[in-house]
């Protein structure tokens, strides 16, 4: 499998200028600039392996029509439909393996390149940047945020295409078998669009708050662990426990709010689309019972089956929206490092060849960046000669 790891090379310096957290999807594509062929092959094999979900309602409808009208159908039609469905099921194993192989290759290469880019940028950012940032927050960007971007890849290049294609195939086959029922399918489109537009902003907003709380809490917990000996030495255990619990409560509240908006979005979509499904089932059953429009028992199964597929696809799209929001928020978080202009350029500087060991400060002033209106040191002068120690 050596041929599948060739793209795991450090990204060029141009990467830092092309990274745009304000354009997350374009940035995501740029992260996979060397692995788009693997993403494409992974999507292809995923669609093939997922094909039984589209074929099954049609085959079941055909079989029901065959057994309900044996005088107009031969037994060979039954075996043909069964064999075709069996083949579509058996192909799932090799195509699923190839899908995961290509997707894993591209995703882990992206993780390697992105973490490498963050590491390189951290090495060149100024000391002032590192003094203003907590090491726990930086660690969170290197680990959790990169992992969230990898999960974003699965959501965008796997679940979204399959859901959209499921909807398209269901509409096409319904248009061929029972075009009059397209009105039920078309009716779901404005409902889905309305739900997506309504919940998109609050989901993204609460994802942003949750990410910030998680990053802050992670940084605080790392500092708390480092300072345990000092805390114990000063007998401040209870005060530290109280501060930590307050931070954890804030994180808990942000998590609950995020879960509630996600649950509300999923429940609203499920109820709306299932209501359409119920109307479609009753209408098709009534037409089959009365013999109108030429609707057969198999058509009833077909219509309800594809409506279930459409419902599942729309619910899946709404379900991955929070994950996509987390992924885009992770790209924004990583951009705080990769897009930071506070870089120290050391190339071209004269290297130090000899150290004399003498320090001389003459009328030095210093102001902390966070308190520009107050000078910390004024007119400081000091001379330390070689071999001299001043404490």
Automatic annotation (TrEMBL):
The lineage of its organism: Bacteria, Bacillati, Cyanobacteriota, Cyanophyceae, Oscillatoriophycideae. The chain crosses the membrane at residues 149-175, 181-199. One of its GO terms (cellular component) is plasma membrane. InterPro entries: ABC1_TM_dom (IPR011527), ABC1_TM_sf (IPR036640), Type_1_exporter (IPR039421). SUPFAM superfamilies: ABC transporter transmembrane region. Pfam families: ABC_membrane (PF00664). It is a multi-pass membrane protein. This is ABC transporter. Residues 57-326 form the ABC transmembrane type-1 domain. Keywords: Membrane, Transmembrane, Transmembrane helix. It is found in: Cell membrane. One of its GO terms (molecular function) is ATP binding.
């Amino acid at each position: 499998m050596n041929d599948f790891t060739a793209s795991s090379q450090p990204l060029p310096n141009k990467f830092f200028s092309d990274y745009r957290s304000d354009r997350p999807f374009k940035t995501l594509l740029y992260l996979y600039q060397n692995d788009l062929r693997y993403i494409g092959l992974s999507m292809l094999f995923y669609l093939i392996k997922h094909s039984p979900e589209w074929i099954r309602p049609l085959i079941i409808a055909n079989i029901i029509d065959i057994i309900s009208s044996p005088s107009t159908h031969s037994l060979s039609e039954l075996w043909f439909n069964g064999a075709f469905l069996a083949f579509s099921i058996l192909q799932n194993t090799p195509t699923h393996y190839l899908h995961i192989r290509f997707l894993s290759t591209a995703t882990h290469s992206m993780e390697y390149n992105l973490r490498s880019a963050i590491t390189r940028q951290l090495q060149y950012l100024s000391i002032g940047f590192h003094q203003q940032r907590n090491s726990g927050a930086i660690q969170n960007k290197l680990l959790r945020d990169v992992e969230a971007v990898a999960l974003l890849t699965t959501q965008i290049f796997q679940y979204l295409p399959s859901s959209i294609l499921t909807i398209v195939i269901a509409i096409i086959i319904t248009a061929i078998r029972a075009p009059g029922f397209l009105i039920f399918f078309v009716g779901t489109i404005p409902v889905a669009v309305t739900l997506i537009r309504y919940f998109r902003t609050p989901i993204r907003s609460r994802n942003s708050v949750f990410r910030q709380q998680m990053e802050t809490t992670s940084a605080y917990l790392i500092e708390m662990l480092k300072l345990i000996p000092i805390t114990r030495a000063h007998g401040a255990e209870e005060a530290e426990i109280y501060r930590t619990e307050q931070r954890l409560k804030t994180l808990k509240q942000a998590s609950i709010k995020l879960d509630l908006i996600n649950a509300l979005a999923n429940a609203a979509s499920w109820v709306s689309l299932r209501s359409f499904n119920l109307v479609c089932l009753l209408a098709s059953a009534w037409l089959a019972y009365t013999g109108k429009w030429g609707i057969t028992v198999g058509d009833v199964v077909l219509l309800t089956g594809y409506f279930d597929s459409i419902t599942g696809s729309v619910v899946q799209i709404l379900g991955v929206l929070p994950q996509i929001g987390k992924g885009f928020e992770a790209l924004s978080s990583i951009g705080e490092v990769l897009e930071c202009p506070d870089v120290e350029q050391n190339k071209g500087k004269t290297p130090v060849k000899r150290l004399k060991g003498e320090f001389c400060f003459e009328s030095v002033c210093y102001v902390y960046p966070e308190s520009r209106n107050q000078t910390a040191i004024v007119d400081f002068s000091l001379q330390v000669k070689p071999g001299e120690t001043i404490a």
